[in-house]
Fold these 3 entries.
Entry 1:
Amino acid sequence: MRALVALLLASAAAPTLAAPDLAMVARISDEAMNHGEVVETVAYLTDRIGPRMTNSPGMRVAERWTQDKFKGWGLTNVRTEGFDFGRGWSIESASVMLESPRRMSLRTIPVAWTPGTPAGGITAPLIVAPMKRPRDFAEWSGKLKGKIVAISFPRPPADATKPAFVRMDDKAIGELDEFQQPVTASDDGDGWFKFIQFGKQLDEFLAKEGAVGWVRMSYRDNGLLHGEGYQHRDTPKLPGLELTAEDYRRIARLATQGDVTLTINSQVKFDDSDPNGYNVLADLPGSDAKAGYVMAGAHLDSWVAADGAADNGAGSAVVMEAARILAALKVKPKRTIRFALWSGEEQGLYGSANYIERHFASRPANPDPVKARLSYDFKLGQYPIEKKADYNLLAAYFNMDNGGGKFRGIHAEGNFAAVPILQEWLSPFASMGASTVVASPTGGTDHEFMQAIGLPAFQFIQDPLDYGTTVHHSSVDTFDHLRPQDLRQASVILASLLWEAANAEKPLPAKPLPTKPKMTDPFRYEDPDKKD
């Protein structure tokens, strides 16, 4: 009897969770599945507009087009918020020709933000001179004048040991449910900083030595190209191009047998007309101005090797479709629902970081003036965090940026108090395969810096499909690698969670505001390899 009484008392004391609004879920599902536009939206973004690198002509078109769509669907306060970014850059044409010992065209793409060649290109002998640390420069000093430099080590092909296309099973999802200690401090991104700085140091060394250009090897096999570059604030001196792994290995082998001559031709265009990148924002107004707002976001920008379909046209289209669905249903949530299409994500989450600094909270600048000029990553170890006006107004943020695969659940990011609420909100979608809340975090996208200041910001678990193995940042990131039914399912779930969060009695619980932590491992040894 005492046990029964204790159980009843415990049940009475436990907080009760409001059941999901199943009638609204049904309306949302009908609108998405039978009247949806998400496939048409992502097709327009990818097939018609194409790649959308920040401040490129394609991105400017996308900024205008997405605003027009939001306005046409009846969203309000549709606007852009600008932030300092730098030069725009786009590709007009590119080619690399092997001239000797035989003539053939090589598959290539210019490396982002590198300058072009003169019209007609540059013909010069090739030298294979792999360099990945400043200490490697001494070996090649005095040997590069007038040469096209192959800067990558020609790594051998690797066996494919994993399937290229994956749908997650319960076991794979369950393995994500592991708590990881939150990181509230940073080493100021020393590895990332060295990587960025090395690109600049290499360009300066090659130019000083009289090289006329350089080529590098794609990091994937099977003819895939990527073309990412990270020097958009300091324009490099020399043209740089990426070759497919197979073509790069070929010219490296030929160079061991005798002289090799290449013609590199990179015609690119810089745009200095407006150095600002722009986030696109739109609101579905709430009935209670004091209740704050909820947000959904995805990054609109992409790299340029293909059309930016899975990364992140898919996420952008799902966010836009959630806005269209709720507007079409003519609902009036308690809280405003804000939709964000971020810019500058691919270069370091610039757009969402700017929104954070403008609206949510600020951190002191990194004391190193070079790091302070670079991305928000180099602020993560700086304290105290100072809250701004909207910090306590954000009730929830949901982000989509893991390709086009359907939702399987959500990462709770170590937010214990939010877990049962998120489980309740996801419960109607078990038949769609999306009902799991896992403890583990996920990083590298626009919710990350919100999490770093304690806000309730979450990223969905998604079926990988061929995102990590083939598509991510690659020359085949096109509409063909998306699955329409997955996008419709994601749209239903995102719109439903936004509706639940916008009408919940309380905001989703936030984690404590991070403060500067003590050293947690005073007996650690320094790894000498980190110095490289």
Entry 2:
Amino acid sequence: MLPGPIFNVELLTSARRARYFLIRALYGLVLLVAVWFVYQTHHAAYRYGQVQDDIHSVAELSAGFFMTFAWMQLLAVMILCPAMVAGAVASERERRTIEYLFASQLSNAEIVLGKLAARVIHVIYLLLVGVPVLALMMMLGGIAPEALLVLFIVTLSSMLTVCSLAMAISVWSMRAREAVTKAYLLLFVLVALPPLLSSLRFAGPIISDSAIYNYVVAPISDQLVLANPFATMTLAMTKASGATQALGFDLVWGLVRNQCIATILSAGAATLAVRRVHLRQRVKSARRQWRFSHWIRPAVGRRAMLWKEIFAEPAAARLGVLGRITVTLIVLGVLAPTICTFYYAQSIGSGYQSPAQEYIGYALMMGTILGCGILLMVAARAAGSIASERERDCWVSLLSTPLDPKEIIWAKIAGSVWAMRWGLALLVLIWGLGVIIEPTSIMPVVFILATFLILAFYAAALGVRFSLRCKTSLRAMGATLAVALFVGGLYLFCCMPVFIASNPGEGAVLVAAPCVPYLLAMPGIYFVEHGHMGREGSAFVAAYFLGTFGYLVAGFFLTYRSIDGFDAANGRSRLRTSSIEDARTPAGEALPPAAASESSASVVAATVVDDRDR
């Protein structure tokens, strides 16, 4: 009978975890900072005479905060639901306790829906934190009851849909880290792909007038846009007033219809297939899977750990069919508008901008978004580089080798950066097309690529550091992404109200130095707008170099901190006699360095083979 014992156990055990209390406290703090930000913006506008201090302006202040609150609540649903739900079943499989659930009298519905209901309740607890903050602003007026109803319906429907999709992904995933990664990739595609498909109608008559676009692409794009909570909520709140009130709720009911279909399909599929998928994965994991890359990869050589991270880890860290489809859609979503923009920028030059400036304007937006996404993937991959080896029971075998901590840490960092080489190839393609149009743009491209590599090194070092210290890969991934997002740009959300209130001078530009999107876009912005920056141009350049150098120093600091604390974190006593250079034979003779390296390489290669067979 539902909800069943799984629901009670999940609700009680997860409620005692300190991280949920911390997430609620941080979410409430962010909402209070948003209130302060909106108030400081209104106060600055009043101080400069842009608005009047009357009842109408106060109501506009409250309405402006409500839109900010609505977007932040949907962002909380999109960001936190996969992290809280995607590991529900995958973590049981990872801990090898799911067989005990299957051996009991529990049905599939009690296992899957019980876990899903418990996680949904925790998400609801999180969202209820914003009710007192919203009630505080409602005393100022300006918030229509229709807008509250729209926000409630959109948030509830989106929460159920995202949680159901994350639960379905968890059922089909071997590990919790892979489930969370695939859930975020799928949500990114569902949110970002529909606007890209809709923009194809402006790509020219060859595409917009084709039968494939009008009868296949356009209907799918319209339904996906209607299921997008951000687009639907904005349109519905704009129309949910006066004579057009019915039009606004028509959009909401369309969103609920599409999302209910996705919720029912994903929850039903997860419930029906949870046992069958687990049995198929257990049988599949016993087979040895060969790839084409296995035939062309070189011998292990002396850099055994680096060989393992470059040639063996991509085969072990698979995203599955859903992950491959999602990555393919992302690549197509990047290539299609890039090629179209390049074609029209090369053939049409209008206004005061040259074709190169028009294309670089697009490359700035697309390259920055893609670069930030790739950096997050580097950090997530590095966060599981050591913790996942513990979970696969192959970390002890690796520690028993005479490999030096320096070799292990640097190999983990290099492997995390190397794993995103195809994303770097997309960035090179986006900016390389600009070089074809205007060869003088080669200089900002060089600076952008160098900046990206420095930021990728920092992200990998940060992930390896947390992976070394955290017990599970999921916890390491959460801590890594939280720190990377805050340091990489979310800190501006807390700093901007202070700068708006204090009205600083040119030195305030330096606050953008750690902002990752700013660092990735600054060389292109300077190339396009260097003649219009005025005296603040030097401050922007100084912030760029200061931020880039700071991330480089931070990367080396995190790397050497990980190397120094490696033995202590793993309980490993590293003696001088156990190093590769001082490896001794039973007769007391020193092994040659080549023989010692080959011995270590054979141990690592055997560990990789055993892990793949497992």
Entry 3:
Amino acid sequence: MRKLQFLLVLCIFLALTGCRQSGANDNDVSYNNYIDEKFDSTIFYKNYGDIIGADPSVITVGDEYYLYFTNSDGSDCTFIQGYKSKDLMNWEWLGRVFVPNRDAWAITSLWAPEVIEKDGKFYMYYSGFDINYQVMGIGLAVADSPMGPFKEYCGTLEDGTIIDHTNSPFNYVLKEYKSNFKAIDPAVFIDDDGKIYLYLSQDQVDNESSVYGMELSSDMVSIKKDTITGPLVYVSQSWESPSSTHRWNEAPFVFKQNGKYYMTYSANYYASSLYAIGYAVSDSPLGEYQKPDDNPLLQATEDWPFLSGPGHCSIFPSADGTELFMAYHSHIDVGEAGDIRKINFDRVTIKDGELIVNGPSISPQLLPGGSSLYKNISSLATVDASDYDASLLVDGVINSLYSKTDTREVLFDEKTTIKFQFDSDVNIKAILVYDSSDYLLSANSYQLSFSNYKVGDVSFNSSYKYVDEFGYEIKIPTTASIIQFENLTTNSVTFTFDAGVAISEIIIVGGAK
């Protein structure tokens, strides 16, 4: 009930406020301080949740993003849809990119498609109800384009087994390995050395789901039987287990950064508001994965009344390859949770080995690298922050957790001026200031000036900081004060913050002069 009441209050506030337009000030710089939905779509995207679906898989092809998912809008799960976009906000529907043959091994319960490209071919691994074994199993469909159409794999495996659309290329091997191996949520990872790995969840065998892995041959389908390993992750942390009778570690996704293998996974029950994303780290693709103590990576809390059940993610690069993003689903109904889910996108970063999500976000975020003429130029400046650790202000980490304010935010114990000095003039299009996720340390405003101009006080959106009907003081995290400029050239940007305010990140958006 608290979540629903909050959303009603938020919607009323946004409807009444509108955009505060500020014209040229005394020093003749024109700017807009946005406190509602009106923002420049050439600079920002926003998680509107327009695409209703679950278990998203996103791949980056050139300057376009391709999205595939499980149907969760009330339509049946007898086909897979596809979308494409250049900005993560405006999506073009590609139609039903995969529809199985009517006499295929699986024509229902088509869930959790994961697409990967190799040598110009696109491989879709998916879950489906295997009519041959009467359990969930894993399939493979192949296309020459990310737009499809994808068709069931047909061919001969390395051991001579002939596969067509009437039989799964994977389940027979797994049944040899372990009886009653119900498999869902496939994901494939290609390592730097060209080796290929398949991960999947053994679904609710003995009332528990856990993740297994194995190496594939170069044909992307033949399993190297002696490499089947698991469980790689299993229910082992308290947040993962809502009951002793049904326990889940599912929806694996593996990627590699700085020589480490990161596996994201989902746990708890998918229709529960407590469904969440965790992660584990290993030194090898099929090695021992260690879960950090501060899991989960992303989970709804009382501080996030706008979110329910974030889960089943995939990680993908920005168009220019400089950033990583996470696609994940969450419940449409934040009060009741359930089956109907929407798809969200937020940045992820790794700092000192820790995987961090800059989300969940509900305010505008900077477009992915390569999707805009503008980018974050904060790190190009020399930062004068007195005795404070200025690196925390430009480290790419936007704090979302009350428990991390001490390590991810800069707390000013007195009124403080922070100056960003560039080597030469830069053209600034926007500035985002992320304050604390702690209500008591969050800001109401700050002062802003440039080498030749002074803006004065810049407000934070007050709807992101409030006291609810129960008297709880709440600050919605990962929300920013956003100020945009029509034409501003400067070589410095100066911020002045009041004492007792904590700041998580400062983003200065620049472009060509």
